[in-house]
Amino acid sequence: MSRSWPDLAVLALLVGVDDLGSLGAAARRECMAQPNASRAVRRLEGELGVTLLRRGARGSVLTPQGTVLVHWAREVLADAGRLLDAAEALRGARRDELAVSASMTVAEHLVPAWLGELRRHRPGLRIHLLVHNSTTVFEQVETGACDVGFVESPSVPRGLHSCTVGQDRLVVVVTPAHPWARRRRPLRPDELAATPLVVRESGSGTRTTLDDALRDLPRAEPLLELASGAAVRASVLAGVGPAVVSVLAVREQVAAGTLRVVEVEGLALTRRLRAVWREPRRLTGPAAELVATARRLDTSVSP
After folding, report:
1. Using CA atoms, how far apart are residues 118 and 291, in angstroms rounded to an integer?
2. What range(s) does the HTH lysR-type domain occupy (predicted)?
3. How many domains in the chain?
4. pLDDT digits (tens, 9 = 90+) for 91-129
5. Whether pTM exceeds 0.70
6. Residues whose CB is less than 8 angstroms from the CB of residue 80 and which lie 6 or more positions away in sequence, other chains included
């Protein structure tokens, strides 16, 4: 035989009658109109097959059976309160954790400052940082493996929300001994496309931006494909060949003169840095705070 579960609000009314001496007072404590309270108790009496209140001219009081059941009603309400307390604790624990996935360039050069600033305001926040190329960041956001991702890819998959947190620029870099370092005129895009380069792996935002910029030109095969901007930079410094990298990855070497930037005529290599996430459309909690921090800090740099 199936049984229906009693409404917790009605149990709270019964406890209120026991505490306060009348159904009217109990209804007021529960912010319920007295006619609705009376109907709710009658419905419970019908479901249980037990008379719970003795109704008279001076109001309603508990019957002996009602007094017995009020004891169990208190137990049920106490357990329900503990359930809600546990849920609140779980929500609080979730709010105190943040999983972030970032593409290599953003993770290496920008995220540490963002997280440091966030931790100054949220010292108890536990942060988990995952570092991958942009394609994998999108996958982790889509599957819920992280709360928010940061990428420099030119586009964002359908179904994800995004906002711009800064700008970046790709530059062609060579060593001072490379012939391009002595050029008086900028490179033409077709010259760049025809030259074997040290490049990032497919799926990275840097590689995608470069491929999009040169898509209409015949391309040379890469000299090397590497999985991080640091590895690309080290290869250029070692004299392997020229590369197109984020200015973030080479600004110190350009300032020191160990790498030279080679201008390219008419080629747009700027890109937006984006935060990406799933539903809801509006971020909340630590993820929203991190995005706000990223937008507040200056990420638009040049060599």
Report:
1. 10
2. 6-63
3. 2
4. 655 557 899 999 988 998 999 999 999 988 888 888 999
5. no
6. 8
